[in-house]
Amino acid sequence: MAIVHTLGFPRIGAKRELKKALESFWKGDISAADLEQAGQRLREQHWRLQADAGLDYVSVGDFSYYDQVLDMTALAGAIPARYGFCGGSVDLQTYFAMARGSASAPAMEMTKWFDTNYHYIVPEFEAGMTFRVSTSKLVEESREALRLGFAPKPVLIGPLTFLWLGKERGGDGSFSRLQLLPGLLDVYAHVLRELKALGVAWVQLDEPALAVDLPAPWLAAFKSAYTALSKEAPNVLVATYFGSVADHAPLLRELPVAGVHLDLVRAPGQLEAFLTKLPPERVLSCGVVDGRNIWRTDLRRALELLQQVRAQTDNVWVGPSCSLMHTPVDIDLESKLDVELKSWLAFAKQKLRELAILGRGLEHDGREAIIDDLQLSDTVQRSREQSTRIHDAAVQTRLRDLRADDARRSTTFAARQRVQRERLRLPAFPTTTIGSFPQTPAIRDARAKFKKGELAPSAYEQAMQREIEHAVREQESLGLDVLVHGEAERNDMVEYFGEQLAGFAFTSNGWVQSYGSRYVKPPIIFGDVSRPAAMTVRWSTFAQSLTRKPMKGMLTGPVTILQWSFVRDDQPRAATATQIALAIRDEVQDLERAGIRIIQIDEPAFREGLPLKRADWPAYIDWAARAFRIASSAVDDATQVHTHMCYSEFNDIFEVLALLDADVITIESSRSGMELLDAFKKFRYPNEIGPGVYDIHSPRIPTEHEMLALLEKAADYLTADQLWVNPDCGLKTRRWEEVTPALRNMVDAARRMRDRVPVA
Question: How many CA atoms does the CB half-sphere of 350 hold within 13 Å?
Fold first, then answer.
């Protein structure tokens, strides 16, 4: 009998209940007890959905008030000293201080969870660090599930992946966080013993780090680690996902664990390596339903793959490729999607049903039992393939007609830099922001009324113009050198553009978590992409008319629009990225013709899109960098092109970023203390750069002294005439009461730098 399970379920709630509870708690409107009650309700709802769908186990431990990696940090008691943790149980105040910062301590670094748009809080490890169990969250939630009558499968980030995701802090460079593994295993062993004592049958340990290029010492540690853990643990399922682990098949076969999970959506070809010499008692969990995209599963194809496994072993589990946290909760809530498009989609709740269908299909004579489901699936697949709305001959022709010159500027950066400096006449260490300013309640209220038809288009435009003028006047008052219009009219940096591009569709409740209480609604790219009309020109030109200072035109780049959307799976991602690049290219040219002298094309997801294995990097870099250059290269030398990147690890790809040939790149760096500057020890970045000096994801207001120290550190690595001064990211999630003093301190720090550091 096939076991059906999921690796995880969205924690946010179908109607963003967790977001509302969290933000109410942070504002002091509800108590910690109220927050916990909201969490209990969501957990029970999600377990009920899994059980009602027909799953054999419900996932426990996938629920988090902020981030699952931060939960593991709290469980292990790996709390940085700056938070004043004195042992015992980690309370909510300490937990949220690590994620968001406090008045006395900055937040921990945040970066991308492998190649997704989910952000995790980076663990900090020091030589000699000791671990101790510091929360009972996982055990208590497992007990809670048992009390409600569910069969729990607790989920923990595996010990090697947890260490891999962190960073060493302090020391002379001789310390490796891998040295902490023995002490960390004691914590895991303690928790696993408690779970076994509860009567838990299976525990899932996630080891997605196996999909990256792990060094030999890390790989060697797996056998000893799992040998130690298996002695007193329940049955252990080691879950891998996001890529192939075929190279590690011998290692995984030898691990003393009860089962292994494979992502057969991302890497179906790895299955053969595991069917060979598969231990007869070993469970093979097959991830055949896509946990990262929203298209309905081709059930017939998935069942054929599962039957191939069943022919080799009876110990087959059916699951999604990875946790379903990367998909929205429920397609049934979408009342505005047209019938045809909606019929192609499955969100997390619907994917549970697909899993259960496939499980039934593996039973004796199971195919007959699900024949109606298979026929419906076949109909859906044919509908997508034959739909006339997917393909656009004009777009395909434009792709074929692209020339090599369309992907490069006409002159070198040095030549462009001279022309731009003459035209812009900016001071040394020019100050700017990344693009957005606070999305106030008034802005959100006006947008909501406009969408409901309660506010006329002319009244909405006037309201947004007032907000833009306010942002411009604030920036002038602060003394910023290059201004932005503040993006009051924009709901999201990807959704805003997708709404104006052909080939995109949108949901009303298709939320997924980006970090903490920050959720996004990724657009759906279902067909060929083009730009019917200008998207941003009227807003940018209005803002420029209010000031004599240069106003940046603000766009989102093709790779980020691709990465932060649910992308069609019927053509290569490179082709879709190039289509988007051509649409952005048209907008860039219109902005330039309208007199905008600086155009920023944001690519925060560029690093996120890199394949997990370096052997696969060259192909991605080739098409992704080309897409950016296609979008940005059709301008005169005097037009300055900026790009922005944030919340990924960039140190190892600065040479790649140089291939983009943006005149200025602004990049997140404050949370890591300018750690990215280490890259310049090996590589001299040729163009201009603004390493962020202000962490905007924390409500904490940095001082002038703190920002000046970061700028001085940057000046040790870069020439003074290369450096810009800016925050880490856009300011839409902050309040003006936080933004204004922080930017004032930033401008003052830049002025101090001008006095201290000579510029050629």
Answer: 22
What pTM was computed for the model?
Answer: 0.91
Angle, CA of 117, 290 and 374, to the nearest 5°: 155
CB atoms within 10 A of CB 86: 7
Position 370 confidence tier, pLDDT thresholds 50, 70, 90: very high
Three-state SS for 436? strand
Question: How many CB atoms within 10 Å of residue 456?
Answer: 11
Q: How far apart are the C-alpha atoms of 125 and 78, rounded to whole Å?
A: 7
Determine the CATH number of domain 57-206+213-233: 3.20.20.210
CB 446 within 8 A of CB 463: yes
The secondary structure of 722-758 as a DSSP string is GB-B--SS--TTS-HHHHHHHHHHHHHHHHHHHHHS-
Residue with tokens 């006409």: 410
For residue 206, what are the β-bridge partners? 157, 239
Nearest C-alpha neighbor of 115 from the set 480, 546, 567:
567
- Strands 119-121, 110-112: pairing is antiparallel
Tokens of 427: 């001071």
At 679, list the tokens.
Answer: 């890259």
Structure confidence by residue, pLDDT tens digits, 13-66: 999 999 999 999 999 999 999 999 999 999 999 999 999 999 999 999 999 999
Tokens of 224: 């000893």
Of 628, 467, 500, 501, give the one whose Cα is nearest residue 560.
Answer: 628
| pLDDT value of position 363 | 85
Over residues 116-161, the pLDDT tens digits come to: 999 999 999 999 999 999 999 999 999 999 999 999 999 999 999 9
- The candidate with the shortest Cα–Cα distance to 358, out of 459, 404, 290, 435, is 290
Contact 285, 239 (CB under 8 A): yes
Residue 6: both structure tokens together: 């999921």
**What is the dotted CATH code of the domain comprising 393-439+478-756?**
3.20.20.210
Cα–Cα distance list, 458 to 413, 449, 471, 496 (Å): 42, 13, 20, 19
The closest of 564, 480, 552 to 514, measured between CA atoms, is 564
What residue spans of 77-215 are helical by DSSP H?
Answer: 92-100, 137-147, 159-165, 181-198
Measured CA to CA, the distance from residue 141 to residue 60 in angstroms comes to 7
Tokens of 684: 């001299």
HSE value, Cβ hemisphere, 13 Å, CA-based, for 347: 23
- Residue 221: count other Cβ atoms within 10 Å of its Cβ: 18
Cα torsion angle, 656, 659, 660, 662, sign: positive
Instruction: Yes or no: say if 625 and 601 are a contact pair by the CB < 8 Å rule.
Output: no
Tell me the mean pLDDT in the region 655-678.
82
Whether residue 5 lies in the annotated active site: no
In the chain, list all ranges with CATH 3.20.20.210: 57-206+213-233, 393-439+478-756
Q: Which residues of 170-181 are buried (b: 16+ CB within 10 A; e: fewer)?
A: eeeeebbbbbbb
The residue whose two tokens read 């930033």 is 746
Out of 326, 644, 697, 705, the active site residue is 697
Q: 58-60 and 152-157: which strand pairing?
A: parallel
- Give the mean model confidence (pLDDT) for residues 665-683: 75
The closest of 80, 88, 239, 236 to 169, measured between CA atoms, is 80
Please state, in angstroms and rounded to a whole number, the distance separating the CA atoms of residues 369 and 449. Answer: 49
User: Which H or E element spans position 448?
Assistant: helix 441-451
Retrieve residue 734's tokens.
Answer: 């902050």
